[in-house]
Design brief:
By secondary structure, chain A is of the alpha/beta class. Chain A has helices at about 25-30, 75-80, 115-125, 145-150, 175-180, 195-205, and strands at about 1-15, 20-25, 35-40, 50-55, 60, 65-70, 85-95, 105-110, 130-135, 155-160, 165-170, 185-190, 210-215, 230, 235-240, 245-250. Helices cover about 30% and strands about 20% of the residues of chain B. Chain B is built from eight helices and 16 strands. Bound molecules: flavin-adenine dinucleotide (2 copies), flavin mononucleotide (FMN) (2 copies) and FE2/S2 (inorganic) cluster (2 copies).
Chain lengths: ~250, ~300, ~300, ~250
């Protein structure tokens, strides 16, 4: 974990509010594992003050890639980064998905949730069979398909709320069937909160191990401010930044 | 060579930079970033007698150049903290300061007495100013009599030096500071966070379940500087200034206003090694302005 | 169609947006930018009995997301102002508010009486909270008894509705607001600037000859919102909220916290047509959130 | 006077901390006269909050040029503007140099003070004889010489503190001699405060009319905040933004 000034290498608008950001960081690119995230300072002034957390989409030493969505002030400022800009980046932060080999893993991503999932597929595909369910609001939000092509996927299911690409529906529409048909023993997911809840309804019932990459409002990202807590079943509040962002869904008090 | 050391009377610090309570965890979290020995001192997260969960999220909200927090002082309780202190003490020779909290006067006293005399503990900072704890945000530090009573009682019961941390949410900060001094405080720290609020228009609810929250960060610096200046002009014990400090220049301004040392808060969240950068900047600015030692500057504001 | 009008009881405004005293000149300066008729009301620069020079420069200093000012209320005196008002009144039918200042209670009274009953003047705003005037920055609004005495005396002598403008630099803002209400205030406005300070390291002097200055702008918004919420919960007269407002969203937050109308200050300096943009944003946000009229929102914070 | 969102067209580093900025503004370029200035918003966030004042270096409808020096946070942010950036610009603001025809005008500029002087030369050269004294700390600060070439100057005197270009000295070194030799009846000057003072010592004695373009800390630029005042001999505090920035030096209480 280090807080370094890093060079922006590329900042590519994929579609609409979705971007890929390439950052030069030997340190982070050499150490990051799937699930890890970084904190990026978005402004050289005092406003906004806090760094912003972003999952790692891919490492490609000495570079790392971030896949991000512009949702507010901070991410808009990130979208204005230009090659050559120098920004302060803290990382790698957080825990990772559990070590798994020789299994059928179902990856589930909603929207920008594809970031840690993409990184996880890259790392886990060598020693596991991977299936992916990827959902978005509409065609315009499902915009990484080209980048997914090189991945070795058993099954790739696409969903959009409006049916403009893949099936109409969301990532849980055929979840039960997919888990059962593809002999899935474990799921890794990332997406909005209500997605987690519906996934967990299925995985709990099927007793499929289920790991999720959660988001929370973060003040620091390295465990000192206690702002990013989530209620767990047995251990009270846990910090998403250092106890997570990956949690066994059985632990979370949904 | 400039001399960064400062003298609080009962203790000398190698430099005036002290990371503030609640923004420095238990110190250990910063070991990946720097050697704790480089600091003047450091203050652990506020501690109550028993384990506390803290407030339900959300616990923070950014504001223009500031941060609202309503963390609610979660912590493991004083017994667990003692173990942590003993562990942290292994990694550094820098003075460790405990931030003592309480929901009642008795709880403050219990916590202070529990840590009193521990060789690992250099100073007890009485956080009589936490705005999150009581409803409406009132705290002992908003009442000069309550401040006097509480500080006096603790001072009579402990031998470890005490630092009394004031709240800015008062009409007359000097009156409170004088009460603390008269009650026996060894030094005073200020300021804690300013009472603030954030709303969510869509739900028509306050952002924080606690309704009010505490504002910190650069936004409050001009306000904190004024408070420190007023207090330093009205008490004879050392004043430890804080509020929105982000640079070495800021530190020197607080010292010029009358602070003997300073605390570094919110910026620790944003930049883990901020304190170390700040120490470097203090040195550089002193060299530039030909200030040989900090005593030469303390309270030397020409008004 | 959303309804932006608000009712202060003694007057209805077409919308809740009122440019604040000292940040809107005498109104005329904004004629190149927009039609004054678009505003809910507007407040002229603070006025004393006699001509005043104001403070020696520097008079402002930027702070993170904020502005310190120590302008010192320069002005032409009340007689000259009367002429200006008569002139400005020709260019608009929007209610004009006078910001009444005084170094003594008698001066406040003299100024209030001088403008009382002028058909061009809708409301007298008593600026009992200007921190720059007296040394150390104390003002009537920092003392509930002084507030009561002063407001009562003026209320008994004038028939024009009065708006009492409070200072944030107090322990218990509600106590001051209640005093003003009991003394007969028709409405309350808050908050004036927070006491702050800026230093110049090189000269070792305060930036402002007056030492302290008043902080305004986005930096103070979370603090102002909390104060407005507290006051609105404790008085029965309308509250006019301000402090760091820069967007329509901000306005709706103040209204949700209990304000009936708002004042727009520092942002006028940065963006002359800010008030007009803000009115537009209020409308848009109301449509989006399906708020038909502002009364529906005022003070409807669910706590 | 208008507050508009304008397009940045070019931002050229002339040398070191000196830049030329080209802004698209039909409105201002059509109306600005020498001495006028604009207020530029330097950040899209709340920090810094205030706009910054800059004199107009040249109008070239629909463009205006600003010549600026990076001295702090705000001007550093201006130096990071890129073509295509949209910023809010208020102007034209302030008064102008007095109308003068058929005279010998001596223009005096120190450092970045060349901005309004350059504009003034452009406008006044048709109907007057112009001489220019231009001073800087060293060669590296006297960096606009190419842009001065097209101007019709009777006399051009360069000074630098270190003698690295022109004569060693400052703009007042040969001031008396120049005024007398070139039959100067009026001077227009812009530069640091101490430069004004030494110029005025000479012009007062020689009874040469002397107009200066002053700077002051400005909160608004259009006369509402009363922050930019300067002490005058007879009229108390005057506002540099609306009563100035050009003042008859006899009026100022130096
Ligand atoms: C561990 C982690 C990994 C993340 N990875 C990615 C990623 O790979 N790609 C991506 O696009 N986004 C990711 N996010 C979310 C991203 O951090 C937020 O979208 C971003 O911080 C919003 O900042 P803003 O200033 O643009 O939004 P704001 O203007 O601050 O707020 C806009 C919205 O975003 C929410 N938000 C604000 N800050 C945060 C925050 N720190 N965490 C979560 N939500 C927030 C707000 O509640 C609000 O609804 C991640 C968040 C976490 C905690
Ligand atoms: C009418 C007018 C015309 C000007 N024309 C030009 C010009 O053509 N080219 C140019 O380079 N500069 C010009 N200036 C000066 C320019 O406005 C300041 O250099 C700039 O505002 C500094 O902002 P900053 O944030 O970079 O500096 P800061 O970090 O705010 O301060 C750095 C230094 O600049 C001084 N300063 C800050 N703000 C101002 C201000 N508003 N006015 C004067 N000094 C200030 C400070 O006192 C400090 O010494 C002009 C100023 C005025 C009033
Ligand atoms: C996240 C957070 C947690 C805090 N926790 C404590 C605490 O436990 N005890 C305490 O006395 N002050 C606490 N504070 C207040 C700080 O110690 C400090 O007084 C305040 O933040 C002002 O300084 P700053 O502007 O540099 O942050 C906390 C502040 C923040 C931002
Ligand atoms: C430059 C300036 C001048 C001011 N002059 C006055 C004044 O004459 N009378 C007054 O009551 N308040 C005055 N104020 C305070 C404002 O009216 C307002 O209360 C304060 O700035 C907070 O609002 P804001 O954050 O929106 O600016 C002044 C503020 C500024 C920035
Ligand atoms: S973000 Fe600060 S503790 Fe997790
Ligand atoms: S800058 Fe505001 S009045 Fe001149």
């Amino acid at each position: 974990m280090r807080d370094d000034i890093c060079n922006i290498v590329e900042n590519i608008q994929i579609q609409g509010e979705y971007y890929l950001l390439k950052i030069h960081s030997e340190y982070i690119s050499a150490r990051a594992i799937p699930g890890n995230f970084i904190m990026i300072s978005v402004s050289s002034t005092m406003e906004p003050l806090l760094k912003r957390p972003f999952g790692i989409f891919e490492t490609d030493p000495p570079y790392i890639w971030i896949y991000y969505q512009v949702v507010g002030k901070g991410s808009r400022l990130v979208s204005e980064f230009k090659p050559g800009d120098k920004i302060s980046v803290l990382g790698p932060l957080g825990n990772s998905f559990p070590p798994v080999t020789n299994q059928s893993i179902l990856m589930i991503a909603g929207g920008r949730g594809i970031a840690p999932i993409h990184f996880a597929i890259k790392k886990y595909q060598k020693e596991n069979k991977i299936s992916l369910i990827y959902g978005a609001r509409s065609k315009h939000n499902l915009n990484l398909l080209d980048l997914l092509k090189p991945l070795t996927l058993q099954v790739l299911l696409l969903y959009s709320d409006d049916g403009s690409i893949g099936k109409r529906g969301n990532v849980t529409t055929d979840l039960r069937k997919t888990i059962q048909k593809s002999g899935i023993s474990i799921t890794f997911s990332c997406g909005p909160d209500n997605m987690f809840k519906s996934i967990y309804q299925v995985t709990r019932e099927l007793k499929t191990r289920d790991y999720a990459s959660l988001e929370a409002l973060m003040g620091c990202g390295f465990g000192i401010c206690y702002s990013c807590v989530i209620q767990t079943r047995k251990s009270g509040y846990q910090k998403v930044c250092t106890d997570g962002p990956i949690f066994d869904m059985d632990e979370i008090a949904w | 060579m400039v001399d960064l050391s400062v003298d609080l009377g009962f203790i000398c610090l190698k430099n005036p930079v002290i990371p503030a309570s609640g923004t420095f965890g238990y110190g250990e979290e910063f070991l990946p970033f720097f050697n704790l020995d480089l600091l003047g001192a450091f203050i652990l997260k506020g501690i109550y007698k028993n384990k506390r969960m803290g407030n339900p999220p959300p616990r923070i909200q950014e504001t223009p150049a500031g941060l609202l927090n309503s963390i609610g002082l979660p912590g493991p309780g004083m017994k667990e903290l003692k173990k942590i202190i003993q562990r942290v003490y292994q990694s550094t020779s820098t003075p460790i300061i405990i931030n003592v909290c309480g929901e009642t006067d008795q709880e403050y006293l219990d916590v202070a007495e529990y840590f009193d005399g521990m060789e690992e503990v250099a100073i007890l900072e009485l956080n009589i100013s936490c705005p999150n704890v009581k409803s409406g945000g009132r705290c002992p530090a908003q009442d000069d009599k309550h401040t006097y009573r509480l500080v006096k009682q603790i001072k009579q019961s402990v031998s470890t030096p005490i630092m009394v941390k004031l709240s800015p949410n008062v009409t007359d900060i000097s009156a409170i500071a004088i009460s603390a001094e008269e009650a026996g405080a060894d030094c005073i720290s200020l300021t804690n966070t300013f009472l603030g609020m954030a709303l969510d228009l869509e739900s028509r609810k306050p952002v924080f379940p606690n309704i009010v929250a505490g504002l910190s960060g650069p936004a409050i610096k001009p306000l904190a500087l004024r408070l420190v200046w007023e207090v330093a002009n009205n008490v004879h014990i050392p004043v430890i200034g804080m509020g929105g400090i982000t640079t070495g220049q800021d530190v020197l301004e607080f010292i010029l206003a009358g602070a003997t040392a300073v605390q570094i808060g919110t910026i620790n969240l944003v930049e883990p090694a901020a304190s170390i950068r700040i120490i470097k900047e203090i040195k550089e600015t002193m060299e530039q302005l030909e200030i040989a030692n900090l005593k030469e500057l303390t309270g030397k504001l020409q008004t």
